């Protein structure tokens, strides 16, 4: 069983969620699904979700478990809303919110403390890849972003230049990076690839050695396409 993480980002609507839930109601699929929805939809999704292989995830959490942080969401809140997973360190958070590896690590620690499994995102920029720095950048990111004693977590390899661009990484590059990350982190680590995964290319990516699943942005908003990836 592979894991399909659907990241709606700041997209979708309650209407789309209802349509998706209706379409999937009587189906279960062969892959595990983690729906990372906008946080305001999580409680509604929790009420509607019936499939045993479907789980909910947040898209981010604060590093503190509670406090005076107006507008932020804590890992406890996500757990209360029905989440069992949370993305941390997505490149859009690292870029737009200037999140450092240390901040990502603190968020992952908060997630674990609240009973969530963190999905820790890493990935190199195009410039870093062209300069031959991809593996060293990734090594630094995993060394500094993963909590020291964490045992239950995913790492999502998402090359920044492949996210939302339609430019999926070459299969041999995905394979090289995933082999490297397994070597660095141990064979038991669960590794996802993310970056322009679609209903058309997901099967090739999922068939690669050391790829335990995919993280899907844009295509996860298309109910039929996500259904194909879940293998209903
Ligand atoms: C993402 O949101 O992490 C992502 C990989 O997006 P997309 O699938 O649209 O490239």
UniProtKB/TrEMBL annotation:
Gene3D superfamilies for this protein: Aldolase class I
What keywords would UniProt list here? Cytoplasm, Gluconeogenesis, Glycolysis, Isomerase
Pathway noted in the entry:
Carbohydrate metabolism; erythritol degradation; Carbohydrate degradation; glycolysis; D-glyceraldehyde 3-phosphate from glycerone phosphate: step 1/1; Carbohydrate biosynthesis; gluconeogenesis
- Which EC number(s) does UniProt give? 5.3.1.1
A Pfam family that the UniProt record links to this protein: TIM
**Where, by residue number, is the active site?**
90, 158
Q: Which compartments does it reside in?
A: Cytoplasm
Q: Which PROSITE patterns match?
A: TIM_1, TIM_2
Cellular component, GO, one term:
cytosol
- Please give the catalytic activity noted in the UniProt record: D-glyceraldehyde 3-phosphate = dihydroxyacetone phosphate; L-erythrulose 1-phosphate = D-erythrulose 4-phosphate
Citing just one GO molecular function, the answer is: triose-phosphate isomerase activity
Please give the CDD domains that the UniProt record associates with this protein. Answer: TIM
Task performed by this protein: Involved in the gluconeogenesis. Catalyzes stereospecifically the conversion of dihydroxyacetone phosphate (DHAP) to D-glyceraldehyde-3-phosphate (G3P).
UniProt-listed PANTHER family: TRIOSEPHOSPHATE ISOMERASE
UniProt-recorded name of the protein: Triosephosphate isomerase
Q: Which organism is it from?
A: Candidatus Finniella inopinata
Q: Which gene encodes it?
A: tpiA
